[in-house]
Amino acid sequence: xxxxxxxxxxAALLSAYALGLATAQQxxxxxxxxxxxxxxxxxxxxxxxxxxxxxxxxxQGEAGVLSTANVEVVSxxxxxxxxxxxxxxxxxxxxxxTAAAVAQQYTGKSLVDRDVIYSxxxxxxxxxxxxxxxxxxxxxxxAALEGKAVRPDAVMTGTINADGTIGQIGGVIExxxxxxxxxxxxxxxxxGQSVLTYYRQQVxxxxxxxxxxxxxxxxxxAINLNDYSEEQGWNLEIKEVSNIQEAAALMLQ
Length: 253
Hints:
32% of the residues lie in helices and 32% in strands. By secondary structure, the protein is α/β, with parallel strands linked by helices. Strands 1-2-5-3 form a four-stranded mixed beta sheet. Strands 7-10-13 form a three-stranded parallel beta sheet, sandwiched between helices. A two-stranded parallel ribbon has the order 4-6.
């Protein structure tokens, strides 16, 4: 009887260990590489702030435009606030909340008793969309919390996910052109977006007697943004980043 109890206890311990291991693998380290940390309180009554250039496309098919995003971390109630001048799309608020959460986890500095306030100035568009600026807002928040400066000659684009990974966006060529026009030297894009695939029209003709039959089809072609930058004389380097660690390493001084 005693042996049976020992065997049952051993089985229960092994089962608990396996469950704990599976849980650690699932939740211990997100895909973006931001490990769970013990958060530290920020110094009381101290204000933290930083600015970063962001780039957007006014409307689909139009030119890109640069703006400045500001972040202020002040004493508060754990709120994430977004200045609505210019007007922001609804998903901008969600993007800002994710940016603050990822920055908190990255730096290990608690925002539970702080308000994080984001604002955009010099916007070239009447309506600001947040998702593609999410990664940049995260980098700016990290800069504020760590007392670092953002490189003035660098710009980045990309969404931010809760695990710290950077998601893809649209209008990369238009945004790159805007960065080059503004004299920037480095443009960070999400992983897989420094080479763009587009469909080029291909026309073939075939004569059959007095009739010419024309066939039009679209074939895939690729544009390497670094090659394109060189062809355009931009002097702009394009680099891919997959997560916020890679972006912060390149953007912060």
